[in-house]
Design brief:
Length: 562
């Protein structure tokens, strides 16, 4: 058997990958928003709007949400070379591929085993994106290329062709993913009739022939008028002669109004299932660019900031196919917030990420209208939405490390004790779970493996005391400023210094991964590490937010950890 060759897309800079710093997310209660009261038992309040670079945000979400997202929808920059209001939509081709690759890999880690990802794109990069997705998700996980009719009329100024459609590429986490069927519509049911007044209701005549060879499918059938029928050359009866006569006796075969027509097997509307999704989505069914423009004008009169957002009906159909109520939906290119608005109305949980200032000027006001029941447009009527629920607003914490005025690396002055402990848990792959009883249990990776973070320089006596408290059946990773003695002196302790422990895991200081990838790959300069101080300086706003949290870095009168 010949080995299958895996084809890969190549481009300049593909081998370069950012070593992302796993940041923590900080909630800003002043920007979070919730309904004043619970309207139904299914109201969802823990949705998340994250402000910041979407690649850093995805990395920040991985620890908590890996394998939990049911549906990802993204509408990334199309890389058309045109100037967009809120992001640069004309980066160089190889850079665009690198930017997309890094994000797609993170999104795949977030997808649930029965999850799917839907990516809106146009002809400019669609076919490169298809090959890239084959590489990231596996060609066997390709589901469909949906054609969305986005235009209402031709654009006569087009130099060659007027583009009427965009694509939506659909991939699943696993090859056996099955889409949900769509609810039947009046149009789909209108083709059913009942010319013989069958008491079982309206029906549709079905083709009695099949192309697949069937051993009992070659026979001659005599109809009520005496006329005989047999399959055309190369075709076969779909059922055996005995079965067809049985169906005829039951009134499930139609011979035409005079009993002379070729037999048709009835398919009753009452017995058919919902509709199988199709790959051609017409504007009259899911809206067009004009539809979405009108929706935005209704939400923000006189504001033309967004010229081509996605219509709400498009997202509604997508979520009907990919999710059920309560499932988690993620959009890391939130734009005007359509995904979150529709998911909210359909009672799905959602996470959106957006870096542009329109996260504050458009997304938050739009979501507030949805929550308050003041958005009457889009899919509000079809979903029966009356308001309720809410969302939490987060921003990405600054980089854990910064340089002091002498050029030495220190922990960012914006971090307090609790923030530092949570950040080091993420960097080292631990779950942040501070104990109320044991000061050294700030994070855990297993039931018996813990993490402790301190800005102290630990003496051998302090390490010996920690080793005794941890015991033989548990282990502790200590991240500290420095320590005295040998690192392997205590079998149940692993000791690492900050910030060298951070530098060994990831790069630092990058807050924007939307620019030229090449500029992100320079190694951090080699600098001397300054001593870490025990007290970190906070801005007034952060001080108020963290005031209620305990100080984890206090020391006793002898200088040891309490």
């Amino acid at each position: 058997m010949q080995n299958k060759q895996r084809l890969e897309l190549t481009w300049i800079g593909k081998e370069n990958r950012p070593r992302l710093e796993p940041r923590i997310l900080l909630e800003d209660p002043e920007k979070s928003y919730h309904a004043k009261k619970r309207l139904t038992d299914s109201d969802i309040f823990d949705n998340r709007l994250i402000f910041g670079d979407n690649l850093l945000a995805l990395k920040a979400l991985e620890q908590e949400f890996a394998g939990k997202v049911k549906c990802v929808f993204i509408d990334p920059p199309y890389n058309t070379g045109s100037a967009f209001t809120h992001y640069d939509d004309g980066v160089e081709h190889s850079i665009w591929l690198s930017l997309m690759r890094d994000r797609l890999e993170s999104l795949r880690r977030l997808l649930a085993a029965n999850g799917s990802i839907w990516i809106s794109i146009d002809d400019n990069e669609a076919h490169y994106l298809k090959v890239l997705c084959d590489e990231v998700f596996g060609r066997e996980c390709f589901v469909a290329s949906i054609i969305w009719e986005k235009a209402d009329s031709p654009r006569n100024s087009a130099r060659q062709f007027s583009s009427d459609h965009d694509y939506i590429l659909v991939y699943s986490k696993n090859p056996d993913w099955t889409p949900q069927r769509l609810p039947r519509t009046e149009e789909s049911d209108s083709i059913y009739g009942n010319p013989d007044e069958d008491p079982r209701g309206v029906w549709l005549p079905g083709d009695p022939y099949a192309n697949k060879p069937y051993s009992k499918g070659l026979y001659t059938m005599t109809g009520p008028s005496g006329r005989t029928f047999k399959p055309p050359p190369g075709r076969y009866w779909r059922v055996s002669e005995e079965k067809l006569r049985e169906l005829d006796q039951d009134g499930r075969v139609w011979w035409g109004p005079k009993g002379e027509a070729r037999p048709s097997i009835k398919r009753y509307l009452a017995e058919v299932s919902d509709l199988v999704p199709r790959t051609l989505w017409h504007k009259q069914d899911v809206g067009s660019n004009r539809t979405s423009k009108n929706e935005m004008r209704a939400l923000f009169p006189g504001d033309e900031s967004f010229t081509t957002p996605k219509p709400e009906k498009l997202l509604e159909r997508l979520l009907l196919i990919a999710t059920q109520a309560g499932d988690l939906v993620l959009d890391s290119f939130a734009g005007s917030g359509t995904t979150g608005a529709v998911a909210h109305k359909m009672r799905r949980r959602w996470i959106m990420v957006e870096l542009g200032e329109h996260a504050h000027t458009h997304v938050i006001p739009r979501l507030k209208k949805v929550i308050d029941g003041e958005d009457s447009g889009g899919v509000t009527e079809t979903t029966g939405w009356k308001g309720g629920g809410g969302f939490r607003y987060f921003h990405i914490a600054p980089s854990l490390l910064e340089k002091d005025r002498f050029g030495n690396l220190i922990i960012s002055k914006q971090y307090n004790a609790a923030m530092l402990a949570e950040a080091m848990c993420k960097v080292m792959g631990f779950t942040y779970a501070p104990s109320d009883e044991l000061y050294w249990q700030q994070g855990r990776s297993t039931e018996n493996d813990f993490l402790y973070v301190t800005t102290q320089t630990l003496t051998r006596e302090q390490l010996a005391k920690l080793s005794d408290e941890v015991g033989d059946n548990r282990s502790l990773l200590i991240c500290c400023a420095a320590f005295r003695g040998k690192a392997d002196a205590f079998p149940n302790l692993t000791i690492k210094k900050i910030p060298s422990a951070v530098l060994a895991k990831c790069e630092w200081g990058h807050d924007d991964y939307s620019l030229n990838v090449a500029s992100l790959l320079k190694a951090a300069p080699q600098v001397e590490f300054a001593p870490l101080v025990s007290e970190q300086t906070l801005t007034p706003k952060q001080a108020r937010r963290r005031a209620a949290q305990p100080n984890l870095f206090t020391t006793d009168e002898n200088g040891g950890a309490e």
